[in-house]
Amino acid sequence: MHLSSAELDDLLTTEAQKAKASHNGRSAVAVLKDGHLRHTLITLLEGSRLNEHAKPLAATLQVLRGTIVVNWAGESRVIEHGGLFVLPDALHDVVANEDSAFLLTTVVG
Predict the structure, then answer these.
(1) 48 neighbors 26 (Cβ within 8 angstroms)
(2) Cα–Cα distance, 78 to 99 (Å, whole number)
(3) pLDDT of 91 higher than 90
(4) Dihedral over alpha carbons 30, 32, 33, 36 (to 10 degrees)
(5) Which H helix or E strand runs over 107?
(6) Average pLDDT rounded to a whole number, residues 7-18
(7) How far is CA 17 from CA 10, 68, 91, in A?
(8) Stated pTM of the model
(9) Residue 3 has what pLDDT?
(10) Gap between the Cα atoms of 63 and 68, Å rounded
(11) Would you give the end-to-end CA distance of the chain in angstroms?
């Protein structure tokens, strides 16, 4: 399966609207799947959070819009638009510093 940049831009717009309409200021949609590989588009409004959770087998995120902060074990990392980050092997949460969207790529067992 292939997803063009125009299709991804359309998804970003749609998911931002869903986040604005939701009570928790966030949205998520599965974009592509290939066996154990998953790509999920996550949108967070400014101040919204993904509560603490464990990392799957392997995971990266790439910020497509905005700025997010990943917090884990007393550490944190700010990831800005365009940034690509390997998630830590620890419980972590994600907070949006501004309206943001990122592509989460995971390998699930």
Answers:
(1) yes
(2) 14
(3) yes
(4) -90
(5) strand 100-107
(6) 95
(7) 11, 18, 29
(8) 0.94
(9) 85
(10) 8
(11) 21
Three-state DSSP at 26 gives strand
Residue 20 to residue 15: CA distance in whole angstroms: 9
Contacts of 5 (CB under 8 A, 6+ apart): none
DSSP of 42-106, one letter per residue?
A: EEE-TT-EEEEE---SEEEEEEEESEEEEEETTEEEEEETT-EEEPPSS-EEEEESSSEEEEEEE
Q: Report the chain's mean pLDDT, rounded to a whole number.
A: 95
Residue with tokens 């986040």: 19
pLDDT digits (tens, 9 = 90+) for 52-68: 999 989 999 999 999 99
What would the two tokens of residue 22 be?
């939701």
Six-digit token string for 106: 């995971």
